[in-house]
Amino acid sequence: MRICIFGAGAIGGLVAAKLAATGDAEVSVVARGPHLAAIRRNGLTVRDAAGETNVALQATDDPSELGPQDYVFVALKAHSVPVILPGLVTLLGPDTAVVTAQNGVPWWYFHRSGGPYEGHRVEAVDPGGRIWDTIGPERAIGCVVHPAADIEAPGIIRHTEGDRLPLGEPSGEKSERTLALSRALVAAGFRAPVRPQIRSEIWIKLWGNVSLNPISALTGATLAAICGNDGTRAVARQMMLEAQAIAEKLGIRFPIDVDKRIAGAAEVGEHKTSMLQDLELGRPMEIDALVAAVQELGRLTESPTPTIDTVLGLVRLRAATPLVPTLSDQAKVRIDPAGVRS
Q1: Cβ atoms within 10 A of the Cβ of 135, count?
Q2: For the chain, where do the domains classified as CATH 1.10.1040.10 start and end?
Q3: Are the C-beta atoms of 146 and 165 separated by less than 8 Å?
Q4: Keyword annotations for this protein (predicted)?
Q5: Per-residue pLDDT tens for 113-131?
Q6: Catalytic positions, please?
Q7: Which pTM does this prediction carry?
Q8: Class of domain 199-320
Q9: What is the rounded distance in angstroms from the CA atom of residue 235 to the CA atom of residue 242?
């Protein structure tokens, strides 16, 4: 089995290292910068509660060096996918499956979904249908990412919690290619069940992402703070109810109610969402996949989204507005007697 992890960041690096450690698959990674240099020099390392695992594997910033794969595991954020399409296609053979491991609404969402929206393309995550036309939705396998990990240093991944990577075909069938990938991931230490309703798994995670992520970017607050504050909790709850109404029109049924979902987020504690972390690091935020796509599906299903619309407008402005230095940042700037800032 040949598996390429395209985007060997925190999650991609975690998956790559654990798969490679089993010795059952030929695993390669596409990475860049200091992270790539460190992997080439010292291998890829994962640190967790059980200790440290180091693996040597093929790493490159030029996918064309790797040749066709059985599986390409795309572990980049959704807005990065159009940029990497020219390189990704060099990894595709006649039967290559592309595993989408991004948050939010996937570009293939309506492929083999049945019903009135069959084949509809979600513009917010796939402008002009470019991803759909280049990769082909028949290659897609859905994957919902639950593990939490960070890049501790170039070439070193810190895995903090979680091991669930549920998989699913857009059609809902338990195909041999999905079952084979599930077996490989299970052997690597993940829980990777093949779900007949992968879209339901996607919505359970998206339910929190659509609300808590943009609110965190707007306020700078952790999950515990958002859920513990009456005002922000009420905004999040209303956004989640709007999203739930859309999902239910698309045939999704939620196994828990909105208050239990919020309580679960609160239990995570003083955690910064990925959107807030991206904002603080000056990186693009996942606004389109997590929020704008839900708004688009609201328009498609004729579902009102007044709170989502408001927060989307605010977080888009936040993304376009330079961060104001904090008092602690300002204190780092010293002016000497000659008037020179240092």
Answers
A1: 23
A2: 199-320
A3: yes
A4: NADP, Oxidoreductase, Pantothenate biosynthesis
A5: 999 999 999 999 999 999 9
A6: 205
A7: 0.92
A8: mainly alpha
A9: 11
Q: Where in the chain is the domain with CATH 3.40.50.720?
A: 2-196
The ranges of the chain with pLDDT < 50 are 332-342
Compute the mean pLDDT over every residue in the chain, rounded to the nearest whole number.
94
Fold of 2-196: Rossmann fold (3.40.50)
| Token pair in block for residue 229 | 């504050």
Report the Cα–Cα distance between both ends of the chain, in Å, rounded: 55
At 153 the pLDDT is 96
